[in-house]
Specification:
alpha/beta, Arc Repressor Mutant, subunit A, Nucleotidyltransferase, domain 5, 3 domains, five-stranded mixed beta sheet, 20% strand, globular, binds zinc ion
Length: 399
């Protein structure tokens, strides 16, 4: 999609405003949409017909009960004809999936990383994306764009990965290189959006959650790295340099254990997978996997149990601090460390409840990620929808 001139931008703003309203309130009629948006009924009718023809919206078979005369036809988002591609670039794996406009997974594919250098990862990613694009098109779906979540700080407008410390990447022109690789596979003209992995996971919860999603929404991602994505008033909160949400490097203890970032006592040095593994095994080499730690917990290994509960309590401290910094309507916890289950999560919960009791305040809504291990890939697809539905705010992001 290329937007040229004010007229077509204005038209796109109006069209996408209609889609956003229908997304928030499925079942509205054309007349309701005119009321909600302030557009004339004839404009709404024209635009809605376009949106139906293009696969954004669908008329429901069930007629809403109305008064005498022509009954209004309820509209909803069409999950059957368009598709979004989302990719999760993790430290050892690539996962790519295609989802419908309503967030259902249509197809997915995952592979271990073929190497650590950016050009190898980008080429491999292009191949996987190419496969899914072809599949989606064979299935008769029109694609809207490609979103990518990467574990690092991203300059959003440029599509550049500024710094991904755990991948040892710096200043990688991710979007333009992915675009070149995709073009060589015959995939062209799809907008590509790159964003931090926890930011896109937050968008996944926001875009595909039941409306209205509580605000602000915080997604707290727990893996080797620890970080957060924050959505405030319909926007990702990115900060002045795009580093907002690096909560894994907020300090929880003076003179605490050394963190990957060089500081001491960071949250990641207590809650990150590497930190938990080191605490259990007594050394930093050969990080224990989540599955291995789970097996130790199942065997009621005392050392593992103590270490995991301790990490859970620090998670409680971190969420308590986020609660006070942001006054969130909802905190979502995701990432592989959550799979440690009850010993970890219950410790966090009772720590938090104690803080809430001490200050006589009600905790915010705290829940596990809706899409589990797919949170980042589905979130990356949600990023595409989020940007396309807001042409005014993101018009400079167009390729
Ligand atoms: Zn740190």
């Amino acid at each position: 999609m290329t937007i040229t001139g004010d007229q077509s931008l204005l038209r796109e703003i109006n069209r996408m405003a209609l889609v956003r309203v229908v997304q928030r309130q499925p079942g509205l009629s054309r007349a309701d949409l005119a009321k909600e948006t302030g557009l004339t009924k004839s404009t709404v009718s024209l635009l809605v017909q376009d949106l139906i023809d293009e696969g954004w919206m669908v008329e429901s078979d069930v007629q809403a009960t109305g008064t005498a005369g022509r009954r209004p036809t309820p509209l909803s988002i069409d999950g059957s004809r368009l598709a979004l591609i989302g990719a999760d670039v993790s430290l050892d794996n690539l996962s790519v999936l295609a989802v419908s406009l309503t967030g259902e997974v249509i197809s997915e594919i995952a592979e271990p990383l073929a190497g650590g250098r950016p050009e190898i990862v980008i080429r491999q990613l292009a191949r996987l994306v190419g496969n899914l694009v072809e599949q989606a098109r064979r299935g008769g779906r029109r694609l809207l764009g490609i979103g990518v979540g990467v574990p690092g700080a991203v300059l959003t407008q440029q599509g550049v990965v500024k710094l991904a410390p755990n991948l040892a990447w710096r200043d990688v022109a991710f979007r333009s290189e992915l675009s070149i690789e995709l073009a060589s596979l015959g995939v062209e003209d799809l907008p590509i959006f790159v964003q931090n992995d926890f930011d896109v996971a937050a968008l996944g919860e926001y875009e595909f959650g039941e409306a209205p999603v509580p605000d602000p929404l915080i997604y707290l991602g727990l893996g080797v790295g620890v970080g957060a994505g924050v959505v405030v008033r319909d926007r990702l909160f990115l900060g002045a340099d795009g580093f907002a949400g690096e909560v894994g490097h907020s300090i929880l203890q003076l003179e605490g254990p050394v963190c990957s970032c060089g500081r001491r006592g960071c949250a990641e040095a207590f809650i990150g997978l590497k930190a938990i593994s080191t605490r259990i095994s007594g050394h930093a080499e050969d990080m224990l996997s989540v599955e291995t730690i789970r097996r130790l917990l199942d065997r009621e290994d005392e050392g593992a149990l103590l270490s995991v509960k301790r990490a859970g309590r620090y998670l409680g401290v971190l969420i308590q601090n986020l609660w006070m910094y942001f006054n969130p309507g909802r905190v979502v916890i995701g990432g592989p460390v959550c799979e440690l289950g009850a010993p970890f999560l219950d410790a966090a919960r009772s720590c938090l409840e104690a803080y809430a009791q001490d200050c006589a305040l009600q905790l915010p809504d705290i829940r596990l990620a809706r899409f589990g291990t797919r949170s980042i890939a589905i979130g990356a697809a949600a990023l595409v929808r989020h940007v396309l539905l807001r042409p005014m705010e993101f018009r400079f992001h167009e390729r």
